[in-house]
Design goal:
The structure holds 2 protein chains of 2 kinds.
Chain A lengths: L6 E6 L9 E8 L2 E9 L6 H5 L7 H5 L7 H16 L5 H31 L5 H7 L1 H22 L8 E2 L2 E2 L5 H26 L13 E4 L10 E4 L4 E2 L4 H4 E5 L6 E5 L8 H8 L5 H9 L12 H21 L16 E9 L2 E9 L5 E7 L1 H20 L5 H14 L15 E3 L1
Antiparallel strand pairs in A: 1-2, 1-14, 2-3, 4-5, 6-7, 7-8, 9-10, 11-12, 12-13
Helix pairs in contact in A: 3-4, 4-5, 4-6, 4-11, 5-6, 6-7, 7-11, 12-13
Chain B lengths: L3 E6 L8 H15 L9 E5 L5 H6 L4 E8 L8 E4 L1 H4 L13 H10 L6 E8 L11 H4 L1 H19 L12
Parallel strand pairs in B: 1-2, 1-3, 3-5
Antiparallel strand pairs in B: 4-5
The chains are: A alpha+beta, B alpha/beta.
Amino acid sequence: MVANTRTVALQVPVLARVEGEGALHLRIRDGQIEDLRLEIYEPPRLFEKFLEGRSYEELPELVARICGICPVAYQMSAINAIESLSETHPGPWVQAMRRLMYYGEWIQSHALHIHLLAAPDFFGYDSAIAMAKDYPQVIRRGMRLQDLGNALIRLLGARSIHPVGVKMGGFHRAPSVREATALKVQLEDALQDAQDLVAWSAGIAVPERDQDVTQLSLEEPGNYPILGGNIASNRGQVFAVSDFEGHIFEHQVAGSTALFSLFNEQPYLVGPLARLNLNLDSLPESVRALAVNTGIDWPSGNMFHSMTARAIEICYGITDAIRILKDYGEPGAASVPVKPPAGVGYGATEAPRGLLWHRYELDEAGLIRNARIVAPTSQNQARIERDLHYSLMALGLDKPDKELQLHCEQVIRNFDPCISCATHFLRLSTERL
Amino acid sequence: MSNWRVLGIGSPFGDDQVGWRLVAALESLDKTTASGEAGQCSALALDRPGTGLIHALAGARGAIVVDALQGTGEPGRIHRLSVAELTQANGCFSSHSFGVAEALALADELKLLPRYLLILGVEMSESAPSEDVSPAVAAAVPELCTLIHATLTAWRSHWPGLNREVKTCV
């Protein structure tokens, strides 16, 4: 056997098929990883600073601009923070509609990720366009699901990108019964697509990469988490959203503008796989059975099962959206008044990519004194690097450069990093030498 | 939505507004047309539609896609582009940069492109995004309207059994 003594320098200057712009640097010397760094080089966005001096009422429209893929998540976390400060309870109709709209975002974001970003890797294509030649039905299914998700967002948000229908306390307008019924029919028609997607996704051969990973997700009593609750870990810890800063520590890494988050001094995972692992029992029976029937042994420590977790969440979103719309009725009012006092409000919801935490300090006039937003990709940053290290060692550093590179990209894509959202201080790059 | 569509892609910035200006011009003309001719063509203003462009094309018999073009030539010049020219899919895209070229390439692979498709690019000037549409690019809008009118009329005259359907788009 030839000893692995080569030196590999691999640089992926632009990461394809991740949300936003990033790069990866990896250096292997004498069979050992000498350096591994993930960089995001989209320019800083400084959104928190933009918010200072603005009214809390403007938040839904302002924070929606942080991301074109997950604007609803930003709106809902901000609203959650302000309503928690004002102790507003907008009632069951508003809460149900918020879930509905949020499901739309999960469905469109997950469908897009699975079909356009992740799947081509597993079938040997460099893009969804190339894959569409041989698998048109698969890609078409993804497009249908994505379109359905966008339609759900439009039902309440008027438009699917940077929606404008949301306000503090509820919505500007309630959908009519006719609109709701039409969408319910669309959802019922799409359920089979979603169920097929789960089976298809679970049938894709993926590497065995089981890791003992610390995972965090919201825990919403009686529900699969999306709109609030406490933060729970798979290590048995549970803490309030307002205690986030007492448990999660962000730090800057020398030579990088990236902020890395640690929980119990360890990297941790947020996102669909963590959500599913921690909340499998909260799924409706039909969806839980589907998850169990995939043959995956949940909870899974294999990040390559994230794609199936996303497919299961699409199925869950459609299933629960049908339930919500089944008894839909127009409310007397689509919102309640929100009048927060001066103080600090905390909010968190489950964005498609995981826990999205917000904190706002308001003055007596309701103007924002300061804001802090911690996006899921930022939280996953350290975990991605740890995963890359582990996965490369498991793959074998003696593999050809091209194979190493593809594997690194797949590992990163498993997290569906939304680099655009995470770039308030962040640079991401990977290099292999 | 009509089976005949004009999709103007743009943003509120500088010459990139041209697609939206075109849609506004078509809508304005539409209001002046005789009753019975209106509504024969749908004109949509789109902002970075991504894969949404495929949905906007779905079910159309004919569509004209208009977008601003960054070139080194003469500002306001109108280019007819083929999907092949426009799409040089390199597999290096994210959903944030899934543009017109990628959407049309994917629609082509999925056999979702309309039977008749015209892609028009209007060369932008070097004006700043904060500025209004440059005079050269603004002058291209009436020219686009004429070209679109002629194109849709020609398409319709070729569409079997539909010769009587429409005389004009605007």
